[in-house]
Amino acid sequence: MDSPAPLRTAREHARRAVALVEPLPVVDLALDEVVGAVLARELVALLDLPRSTPQRWTGTR
């Protein structure tokens, strides 16, 4: 009769599971195509947004 498999902790199971996973390749998509996607790298705006200064909103100078 075979001996039972050794018991593993939840941490050991998690470590082994993570070791089996490989990241998907990075793809460039238009903004309207990314619903439900996860960023693979930092997103940087090409322009400062909003373009107007907060002083215009509050009336201060």
From TrEMBL:
This is Uncharacterized protein. It comes from Luteimicrobium album.
